[in-house]
Amino acid sequence: MICQYQRTPPIRRHESTTAAPTNPKIATIVDQISQLTLLETADLVSNLKSKLNIPDMPIGGFSSGLAAAAPPPPAEEEEVAPAAQEKTLFTLTLKSFDAAAKPKIIKEIKSMLGLSLVESKKFVEGAPKMMKEGVPKEEGEKIVETMKGLGGVVGMD
């Protein structure tokens, strides 16, 4: 007796016909997003970040290329805000450093940002570079003083 098996192709997750029951509104949005091109997706992400006030956070020091490729559009709400309002969150930027203090600066950046030694060295050598975003004034001033004591120049914008 000869048994013949018919081989069926494997079902991939995106081809599955028995998906978990979801909200039809969400399903429609997911279908629309999945059809976007890479540039459209980047534009969607930047628009969502500005609409929801989500700051760009450096991840392992690699965010500088992504931030330069797709800068978020300026929020209109910022223009409406009064100019007299005092700024509470700041962006810290490593502007320069004393060449003799380079090893100390690298060590401080490594501990402050949680980078590896190689990433910290590349970060410092790439100055001027954004260190942290959304830093409260007191914490920012402490970091500026610490880096100044080590021989670095950090700007608070």
**Numbering strands along the chain, what is their spatial order in the largest sheet?**
2-1-3
Helix-residue proportion: 40-55%
**Whole-number mean pLDDT:** 76
Distance between the termini: 81 Å
What sequence of helices (H) and strands (E) makes up the elements?
Answer: HHHHEHHEHE
Please count the helical segments: 7
Sheet with most strands? 3 strands, antiparallel
Give the helix/strand class.
alpha+beta
Q: Could you tell me the radius of gyration in angstroms?
A: 24 Å
Low-pLDDT runs of 5+ residues are: 61-68
* Approximate strand percentage: 5-15%
The strand count comes to 3
Oligomer: single chain
Overall form: elongated
Describe the structure.
The chain is α+β, with helices and mostly antiparallel strands and 157 residues long. The chain is 46% helix and 14% strand. It has seven helices and three strands, in the order ααααβααβαβ. It has helices at residues 24-34, 38-51, 63-69, 76-80, 102-113, 117-125, 137-150, and strands spanning 89-97, 129-136, 152-156. A three-stranded antiparallel beta sheet has the order 2-1-3. α5 crosses α6. It is elongated. The N and C termini lie far apart (81 Å).
Give keywords.
157 residues; alpha+beta; three-stranded antiparallel sheet; 7 helices; elongated
SSE topology sketch:
Layout: H1 24-34, H2 38-51, H3 63-69, H4 76-80, E1 89-97, H5 102-113, H6 117-125, E2 129-136, H7 137-150, E3 152-156
Antiparallel strand pairs: 1-2, 1-3
Helix pairs in contact: 5-6
Task: Report a brief summary of the structure.
The protein is an alpha+beta fold and 157 residues long. It is built from 7 helices and 3 strands.
